Amino acid sequence: MHKTVTIRKLEWLSDFFGLNCGEVISPSKTTVIDEKDLHYYHFLQGKCLSHDKTSKFWFEKNGFFFEDSRLTFEKYIEKTSDIAFKNIHIEIATKTESPIIETIAKNVMAEHSRFINLVGERKTKEFYATWIKNAIVSDFDHICFYASVDNHISGFITLRFVENKKAIIGLIGVERESWGKGIAKTLIQYSENFLFHNGFKSLEVTTEGKNDRAIRFYKNYGFHQKNSEYWYYKILKGRSS
Questions:
Q1: Residue-level pLDDT at 182
Q2: d(CA 154, CA 156)
Q3: For residue range 82-92, what is the model confidence (pLDDT) as tens digits?
Q4: Domain boundaries along the sequence of the chain
Q5: Using an 8 Å Cβ cutoff, are 88 and 148 in contact?
Q6: Which residues of 169-190 are buried (b: 16+ CB within 10 A; e: fewer)?
Q7: Hey, what CATH topology would domain 78-200 get?
């Protein structure tokens, strides 16, 4: 006896992209996609642990394609860190700085985004600009810090606070012209100090598997890999609104 697989509508993505987007939750050998969902959704996504052979088989059997891996890293916050680069100034972002930070996000985040093949470069860039705009007013992510050198804004980080005294990095980015100058490291150090003084115990971040630069950075900075997941996509016509 087959049961219908649970699909959760991704409201924020659906509203932003103008598509009915859904996520498959915990598929199993005995679950199938309801015909109504195949007609309703334009796009379905799902993820599973990289070693979960049952879920991977289900996605492939139901016409999903592998999009990318998703790596989660975690670091425990046990003490404050000395800021290595004293010339880098960190502040909480406000609406005044938002346009500059949005531009940086658009220019550096889209390249490795899993959405770019789905909706194109322009819409993907708008997605990350909106993410920054929302984070600055504590919508979804709770806080955004920006880094500047000689009053020039060159990088940012957003944080989301969750249960068990954990914080999650939503986005972190540095303009290309400022790569290699310690800005990303300083943003992480400042965030750790902020979190330590506010009682948080760990910091978590996820990145796409194809983002080799980010993976090297997190490993070199003391994050350990917590898990590895696979993203699967299915693009549909979605014949109803």
A1: 92
A2: 7
A3: 776 789 999 99
A4: 3-70+230-235, 78-200
A5: yes
A6: bbbbbbbeebeebbbbbbbbbb
A7: Aminopeptidase (3.40.630)
